[in-house]
Give the backbone structure.
Amino acid sequence: MKQEFRKYRETGKRLTMLTAYDAGMAALLEQAGVDIILVGDSLGNVFQGADTTRVVTMEQMEYHIRAVRAGAPHTFIIGDMPYRTYETADEAVANARRLRTAGCDAVKLEGYIKGIVKAVTDAGIPVCAHIGLLPQTAETFTVRGKEEDEKIRFQAEAEELQREGAFMTVIECTSSALAKDISETLSVPTIGIGAGNACDGQVLVINDLLGMKEKKGAKFVRRYAELHSVITNAVRSYIGDVRSGNYPSEAESYR
Ligand code: KIV
């Protein structure tokens, strides 16, 4: 399966990736035909309500990966390795094995630490790299790679991550031009989020795509639905019906 992603590059077909954290949503994404589900540590933000992904633990990732695998038995699933769970090669391999056992096909880790991707891929676990804005360590959430030295560093890291065995790279929040340059240099597919249209595919947090929050998110988010109003209106109708005695009706009751 991992090898098939390289073919997308040859055919020009673009890859679709979306996050999911539970079985119900994973089942919907599989039914809709998404290529890859990411059990992102963004669950710290959207599921736990924290203002950082750093709070997410290994146990929580295992729990959510198991749930997503139950809902999407046939889809390629990538699980995020939580903050500070891949600082040494031994630790990275042990933790990647735990996530694989929970049910994901590959793991994703942020940034470049020499030797880590190599150790995990040598252990037989496919790794998706992640460069650009790295939410686990970011102090500010702004566009990355504007300065020449940072551009050069990202380009070098992307190549090094590929050399170490990464089968795919997520590029987050960079200029389109930089993401294009990096994509053209690499032979593995790139997946953009806030990185323009030249990547081989795109990823979004599912809650953002569905418009679960009233407030518009980052510039790169396209809202394909406005579920915050659909859901609040449905719940308001339910509250009204229960309070007025309109729910349940005879037809909704047992004899
Ligand atoms: O955790 C996550 O959802 C991610 C995506 C934003 C790429 O890493």
